[in-house]
Amino acid sequence: MRDFMQKYKKELDDLKIRDSFEDEIFNMITDSQKKRLIKKKFYFAKISRVAAMLLFFIVIGGSGYVMAKSWNIDDILRERFFDKVSADKIKKGEYDELAASGENGEITAKCINTMGDERTYIMLLEVSIKKEKVRDNRDLGFGIKAYCRGDNPSDYKVTSCPAEVTEEDDETVRCLVKYEMPLYFANYSSGKDEEIIIDICNFILDYKENPEIHSVYELEIPVTLSMDSIQKAEKIEVNQSMMIKNRKVFIENICLSEYKTEIEIKFYAKNYNDANKFWKIMAMDYIIDDNLEYKDQKVYLKLYHNGNPVDFADDYRDYAAVNSSDQNMEKKNEENNPGDYVNVLNLKAVDYKDGDTLELRYGESCIKIK
């Protein structure tokens, strides 16, 4: 240990690092460990000062006053973004590389690669932001939207994307950002070999707990996308119906992909509000009981794989139902807009194999799919 500490002190002397840097490195490492372990719901045990300095020496060594990249992209995807599917794709090389970038003087961003399947399209970006902007807040996010060149950007929704700090120095914080792009833009760009715009609209402090959103101006990245690495998804035609609350509901298709399971649903409604009120009945939700308190809705549409219910995805009903004859939703606020409304219910991925069973149930009603 004496030899190690002597070598460690010599490294510090060679780097001419200020006296307080030992304490800063120790705090940095333990904070990082705490964050990682809390996310995994493990008990945090403070590492010793010697262990912290050993970690510092191994990770940073003689490279200078910069936190080295101690995480690979697949590690970040798996352990920080909890995305095993994308992590495995990175590890297997099942992704398309990009090199488009942009900056506005305060933020520099680069689109580095894309991956996914026929139902989900993921883009990873490296983003550098001035440290003074984030005020040592390591729980960061970015608001991103995509649109076709020539479109009105205000017509498109901003997606809040998680970011993970990978490096920092006195002036800059660098992050890996994961953006799930609407699949339409990937298909459009790839099919026509045309550029789309990746617009970084804001950055978010305290992303998970109490988001504080700050606008970003003039940071638009033109990029041409590829679908070369995109994997196939299995689409099962169902075309059956069941009665839910005295209303006929058509189950059109079920799509099984690596990322999630999507159930395509159609039903009649009088207008937009009626459609979305009915949509809440089908999806897992909370209802108000006679005491005006929230309680779990016990009956909702469930998919069973080999007799076991499939969990809902985090964004299981993020999207509103739309009139199938009015896809641009121009009439969504009109009281008189009857017709067939469509939507997609998102569930977690199913590892479906030949011979497995799939059933869709709502109370006593059941549709045998496979």
Secondary structure layout plus pairing:
Elements: H1 2-15, H2 21-39, H3 49-59, H4 73-79, H5 84-92, E1 96-97, E2 101-103, E3 107-117, E4 120-130, H6 131-134, E5 140-148, E6 159-168, E7 172-181, H7 183-192, E8 195-205, E9 212-215, E10 220-224, E11 234-244, E12 247-256, E13 260-269, H8 272-282, E14 286-288, E15 294-296, E16 302-305, E17 308-309, E18 322-323, E19 339-348, E20 358-362, E21 365-368
Antiparallel strand pairs: 1-3, 2-3, 3-4, 4-7, 5-6, 5-8, 6-7, 8-9, 8-10, 11-12, 12-13, 13-19, 14-15, 16-17, 16-20, 18-19, 20-21
Helix pairs in contact: 2-3, 4-5
What characteristic shape results from the CA principal axes?
A: globular
Structural Rg: 25 Å
Question: What is the CA-CA span between the terminal residues?
Answer: 64 Å
What's the architecture of the largest domain, going by CATH? Sandwich
Q: What structural class do helix, strand and pairing data support?
A: alpha+beta
Please give the count of helices: 8
Largest sheet: 10 strands, antiparallel
Element string (H = helix, E = strand): HHHHHEEEEHEEEHEEEEEEHEEEEEEEE
CATH class of the largest domain: Mainly Beta
Chain-averaged pLDDT: 77
Helix content: 10-25%
What fold name stands as the CATH topology of the largest domain? Immunoglobulin-like
Number of strands: 21
Number of domains: 2
Beta-strand residue fraction:
35-45%
